[in-house]
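Q: I'm building a small set of examples for a reading group on sequence design. Run inverse folding on the following structure and report the sequence directly after it, with nothing in between.
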Protein backbone atom coordinates (compact mmCIF):
# COMPACT_ATOMS: atom_id res chain seq x y z
CA UNK A 1 0.00 0.00 0.00
CA UNK A 2 1.47 3.42 -0.86
CA UNK A 3 1.80 5.77 2.11
CA UNK A 4 -0.80 8.56 2.10
CA UNK A 5 0.87 11.85 3.00
CA UNK A 6 -0.99 14.70 4.66
CA UNK A 7 -1.11 17.73 2.37
CA UNK A 8 1.26 20.54 3.32
CA UNK A 9 -0.25 23.78 4.57
CA UNK A 10 1.26 26.71 2.66
CA UNK A 11 0.69 30.37 3.52
CA UNK A 12 0.91 32.72 0.54
CA UNK A 13 1.03 36.50 0.86
CA UNK A 14 2.60 39.72 -0.34
CA UNK A 15 3.88 42.22 2.23
CA UNK A 16 5.24 45.73 1.89
CA UNK A 17 8.38 46.92 3.72
CA UNK A 18 6.21 48.59 6.39
CA UNK A 19 4.20 45.38 6.89
CA UNK A 20 1.09 46.47 4.95
CA UNK A 21 -0.81 43.66 3.22
CA UNK A 22 -4.16 45.36 2.61
CA UNK A 23 -5.87 48.71 2.40
CA UNK A 24 -9.63 49.31 2.27
CA UNK A 25 -10.21 45.63 1.55
CA UNK A 26 -7.94 45.52 -1.46
CA UNK A 27 -4.23 45.11 -2.20
CA UNK A 28 -2.30 48.37 -1.73
CA UNK A 29 -0.30 47.85 -4.96
CA UNK A 30 -0.72 46.60 -8.49
CA UNK A 31 2.01 44.08 -9.24
CA UNK A 32 1.22 41.76 -12.18
CA UNK A 33 4.22 39.49 -11.47
CA UNK A 34 2.83 38.78 -8.00
CA UNK A 35 -0.63 37.95 -9.35
CA UNK A 36 1.01 35.55 -11.82
CA UNK A 37 2.98 33.87 -9.04
CA UNK A 38 -0.16 33.65 -6.88
CA UNK A 39 -1.93 31.92 -9.74
CA UNK A 40 0.85 29.39 -10.27
CA UNK A 41 1.16 28.65 -6.52
CA UNK A 42 -2.58 28.14 -6.04
CA UNK A 43 -3.79 26.58 -9.31
CA UNK A 44 -5.53 23.26 -8.66
CA UNK A 45 -5.19 23.64 -4.87
CA UNK A 46 -7.94 24.14 -2.34
CA UNK A 47 -7.69 27.69 -1.01
CA UNK A 48 -8.65 28.70 2.54
CA UNK A 49 -9.47 32.38 3.14
CA UNK A 50 -11.34 34.75 5.41
CA UNK A 51 -14.72 36.16 4.45
CA UNK A 52 -13.25 39.65 3.91
CA UNK A 53 -10.59 38.37 1.52
CA UNK A 54 -13.19 36.37 -0.38
CA UNK A 55 -15.27 39.53 -0.77
CA UNK A 56 -12.19 41.43 -1.97
CA UNK A 57 -11.63 39.07 -4.92
CA UNK A 58 -12.67 40.31 -8.36
CA UNK A 59 -14.67 37.08 -8.72
CA UNK A 60 -14.23 33.34 -8.34
CA UNK A 61 -10.72 32.24 -9.31
CA UNK A 62 -10.95 29.41 -11.85
CA UNK A 63 -9.51 25.98 -11.06
CA UNK A 64 -9.42 26.45 -7.28
CA UNK A 65 -11.79 25.73 -4.39
CA UNK A 66 -12.73 28.76 -2.27
CA UNK A 67 -13.10 27.58 1.35
CA UNK A 68 -14.27 30.62 3.29
CA UNK A 69 -14.13 31.10 7.07
CA UNK A 70 -16.93 33.10 8.65
CA UNK A 71 -18.69 33.21 12.01
CA UNK A 72 -21.89 34.52 10.41
CA UNK A 73 -24.67 31.94 10.24
CA UNK A 74 -26.49 33.62 7.41
CA UNK A 75 -23.58 34.50 5.11
CA UNK A 76 -23.38 32.75 1.78
CA UNK A 77 -22.03 33.45 -1.67
CA UNK A 78 -22.05 31.53 -4.94
CA UNK A 79 -18.92 29.39 -5.23
CA UNK A 80 -17.85 29.76 -1.58
CA UNK A 81 -17.61 26.64 0.58
CA UNK A 82 -18.49 28.03 3.98
CA UNK A 83 -16.74 26.82 7.14
CA UNK A 84 -16.88 28.06 10.72
CA UNK A 85 -13.57 26.93 12.21
CA UNK A 86 -9.94 26.14 11.39
CA UNK A 87 -10.59 22.41 11.87
CA UNK A 88 -13.58 22.48 9.55
CA UNK A 89 -11.58 24.44 6.95
CA UNK A 90 -8.78 21.87 6.99
CA UNK A 91 -11.16 18.89 6.93
CA UNK A 92 -12.94 20.43 3.93
CA UNK A 93 -9.66 21.13 2.10
CA UNK A 94 -8.44 17.57 2.74
CA UNK A 95 -11.36 16.18 0.74
CA UNK A 96 -9.37 17.32 -2.33
CA UNK A 97 -6.76 14.94 -3.72
CA UNK A 98 -3.92 17.43 -3.23
CA UNK A 99 -0.38 17.67 -1.89
CA UNK A 100 -0.91 21.27 -0.73
CA UNK A 101 -3.54 23.43 0.92
CA UNK A 102 -3.13 27.14 0.10
CA UNK A 103 -3.95 29.62 2.88
CA UNK A 104 -4.47 32.93 1.11
CA UNK A 105 -5.40 35.46 3.78
CA UNK A 106 -6.07 37.88 5.15
CA UNK A 107 -4.22 38.79 8.31
CA UNK A 108 -6.79 37.20 10.65
CA UNK A 109 -6.48 33.91 8.80
CA UNK A 110 -2.67 33.96 8.50
CA UNK A 111 -2.50 34.49 12.28
CA UNK A 112 -4.48 31.34 13.07
CA UNK A 113 -2.89 29.13 10.39
CA UNK A 114 0.76 30.16 10.85
CA UNK A 115 1.36 27.72 13.75
CA UNK A 116 0.06 24.90 11.52
CA UNK A 117 1.93 25.90 8.33
CA UNK A 118 4.71 23.85 6.76
CA UNK A 119 5.88 26.55 4.33
CA UNK A 120 5.36 30.25 3.68
CA UNK A 121 5.64 31.89 0.25
CA UNK A 122 6.07 35.64 0.64
CA UNK A 123 6.36 38.35 -1.95
CA UNK A 124 8.46 40.94 -0.14
CA UNK A 125 7.71 44.31 -1.70
CA UNK A 126 10.61 46.68 -1.10
CA UNK A 127 8.55 49.85 -0.70
CA UNK A 128 6.21 51.23 1.98
CA UNK A 129 2.48 51.42 1.19
CA UNK A 130 -0.48 52.89 3.06
CA UNK A 131 -2.45 50.12 4.71
CA UNK A 132 -5.06 49.17 7.30
CA UNK A 133 -4.08 45.50 7.50
CA UNK A 134 -0.55 44.57 8.55
CA UNK A 135 1.59 41.49 9.10
CA UNK A 136 4.53 41.25 11.47
CA UNK A 137 7.86 39.89 10.18
CA UNK A 138 8.29 36.15 10.66
CA UNK A 139 10.01 34.88 13.80
CA UNK A 140 13.23 32.85 14.03
CA UNK A 141 11.30 29.58 13.74
CA UNK A 142 11.15 30.34 9.99
CA UNK A 143 14.24 30.26 7.78
CA UNK A 144 14.61 31.50 4.23
CA UNK A 145 15.29 28.63 1.84
CA UNK A 146 14.85 30.38 -1.53
CA UNK A 147 14.89 33.96 -2.82
CA UNK A 148 14.36 35.45 -6.27
CA UNK A 149 15.05 39.20 -6.38
CA UNK A 150 13.44 41.49 -8.96
CA UNK A 151 14.53 45.11 -9.46
CA UNK A 152 12.25 48.14 -9.66
CA UNK A 153 10.82 48.51 -13.17
CA UNK A 154 8.90 51.59 -14.24
CA UNK A 155 5.96 52.04 -11.83
CA UNK A 156 6.59 48.65 -10.24
CA UNK A 157 8.54 48.47 -6.96
CA UNK A 158 11.47 46.11 -6.42
CA UNK A 159 10.28 42.84 -4.89
CA UNK A 160 11.53 39.39 -3.93
CA UNK A 161 9.80 36.03 -4.02
CA UNK A 162 10.92 34.32 -0.82
CA UNK A 163 10.25 30.82 0.50
CA UNK A 164 10.39 30.16 4.24
CA UNK A 165 10.43 26.77 5.90
CA UNK A 166 10.43 25.77 9.54
CA UNK A 167 13.89 26.01 11.05
CA UNK A 168 13.62 22.45 12.38
CA UNK A 169 12.71 21.10 8.91
CA UNK A 170 14.77 23.21 6.47
CA UNK A 171 17.67 21.19 5.10
CA UNK A 172 16.49 18.07 6.95
N1 LIG B 1 -1.24 41.04 0.51
C1 LIG B 1 -1.79 39.85 0.49
O1 LIG B 1 -1.16 38.85 0.12
C2 LIG B 1 -3.23 39.69 0.93
C3 LIG B 1 -3.84 38.43 0.88
C4 LIG B 1 -5.17 38.32 1.31
C5 LIG B 1 -5.83 39.45 1.75
N2 LIG B 1 -5.21 40.63 1.77
C6 LIG B 1 -5.87 41.85 2.26
O2 LIG B 1 -6.16 41.66 3.64
C7 LIG B 1 -7.36 42.38 3.97
C8 LIG B 1 -8.35 41.43 4.60
O3 LIG B 1 -7.77 40.84 5.74
P1 LIG B 1 -8.51 40.81 7.16
O4 LIG B 1 -7.57 40.26 8.17
O5 LIG B 1 -9.14 42.14 7.40
O6 LIG B 1 -9.75 39.82 6.88
P2 LIG B 1 -9.80 38.24 6.49
O7 LIG B 1 -8.78 37.50 7.27
O8 LIG B 1 -9.80 38.10 5.02
O9 LIG B 1 -11.26 37.88 6.98
C9 LIG B 1 -11.62 38.06 8.32
C10 LIG B 1 -12.93 37.36 8.54
O10 LIG B 1 -12.75 35.94 8.49
C11 LIG B 1 -13.62 35.32 9.43
N3 LIG B 1 -12.79 34.64 10.42
C12 LIG B 1 -11.56 34.98 10.86
N4 LIG B 1 -11.11 34.09 11.76
C13 LIG B 1 -12.06 33.15 11.88
C14 LIG B 1 -12.17 31.96 12.67
N5 LIG B 1 -11.18 31.56 13.50
N6 LIG B 1 -13.30 31.23 12.56
C15 LIG B 1 -14.30 31.61 11.72
N7 LIG B 1 -14.26 32.72 10.94
C16 LIG B 1 -13.14 33.48 11.04
C17 LIG B 1 -14.47 36.44 10.03
O11 LIG B 1 -15.56 36.58 9.12
P3 LIG B 1 -17.01 37.15 9.57
O12 LIG B 1 -16.81 38.59 9.89
O13 LIG B 1 -17.86 36.92 8.36
O14 LIG B 1 -17.45 36.32 10.76
C18 LIG B 1 -13.55 37.63 9.91
O15 LIG B 1 -14.22 38.88 9.93
C19 LIG B 1 -7.84 42.99 2.66
O16 LIG B 1 -7.35 44.31 2.55
C20 LIG B 1 -7.19 42.13 1.60
O17 LIG B 1 -7.02 42.80 0.37
C21 LIG B 1 -3.91 40.78 1.37
Amino acid sequence: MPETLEPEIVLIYARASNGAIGHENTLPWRLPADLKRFKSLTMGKPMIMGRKTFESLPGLLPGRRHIVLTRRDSWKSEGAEIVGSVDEALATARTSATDEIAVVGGAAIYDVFRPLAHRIEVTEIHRDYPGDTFMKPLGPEWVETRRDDHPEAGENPAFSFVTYERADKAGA
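The mean pLDDT is 95.
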